Amino acid sequence: MPDRLADRRPDVPADRLVTDMVPPPRFRHVGFDGYRADPAVPSQAEAVAAARAFAAALGDGGRRRGWFRRAAAPEGGGLYLDGGFGVGKTHLLASLWHAAPVPPERKLFCTFVELTNLAGALGFAATVEALSAHRLVCVDEFELDDPGDTVLVSTLLGRLSERGVRVAATSNTLPGQLGEGRFAAADFLREIQALAARFAVVRVDGDDYRHRGLPSAPEPVPDDLVAASATGEGVTLDDFDALAGHLATVHPSRYGPLLDGVRRVHLRGVRTVDDQSAALRLVVLADRLYDRDLPVVAGGVPLDRLFTPELLAGGYRKKYFRAVSRLTVLGRDGAATLTSHRPPWR
């Protein structure tokens, strides 16, 4: 009987929350030389140069106060890589982490949700102390989904800056527009503007590299084949609705540990989701699946129809499009594993 993700309830000790803050498996060995900048998109090469310069500046031996300065060079402030999904921002951020001439124990790599969860688990003061022991903090998928996060992160980054910690981040949204379309951002304009002032913004343009010249999404796999092919160690089999319901009982910061030991995920009965809370949880799961490079064998609706048109047009649309892009890649990988399971007439 295959393992079910819906049966897992990962217990993550508080000390692991920090020690796990390293680039995920997909980006464990990446570097700037492996980033394939599109010659037709100059901003990509410019982003590589900016990220290289930011990493190199960390080796100057001095703890520069004032990464709030509005200097032209990214090394004069925090670095913020802004661009659409699929342009390689996470690759660049992980490359920066690897290239920074800082001992591994003094640099962190985390997602935004992991950062806010750390503050919730340890408390604000303890989080400041834990992060202040590092020279570099890299924050992937920087987003402000609610006013509480806005105030928390603005205050946290201010405290870290005072202690000389350098921050690099990626997002699909310019820092001055964080929270736009999600809550009454105007009521928190001061905090949002303070966040924007902490970063030198480097734009990364281009098309989604994951799908250049490729079809959009693989055809769904018949549910009986999804189940029949769910064999072997580290393979899970879940009914989509049961897994979606289970995700509501697990904090999103634990979706990574939920996948510990998994090498392939099988889902029966995938359907289009119209509930925003459920959809946002699936976005986080998609990100963690992608981080771990886990093939997904899926039946039901095609993965590019996972979210309703209304959700794709709303304030979180960039998150949903990123999730679809990543799941499509993993779905292709999953479909490629099925050759040995298909009957000869298929």
From TrEMBL:
Entry GO MF terms: ATP binding; ATP hydrolysis activity
GO biological process, one term: cell division
Domain of life: Bacteria
InterPro entries tied to this protein: ATPase_AFG1-like, P-loop_NTPase
Alphabetical keyword list: ATP-binding, Cell cycle, Cell division, Nucleotide-binding
Gene Ontology CC terms: cytoplasm
Record protein name field: Cell division protein ZapE
Organism: Jiangella alba
Phylogenetic placement of the source organism: Bacteria, Bacillati, Actinomycetota, Actinomycetes, Jiangellales
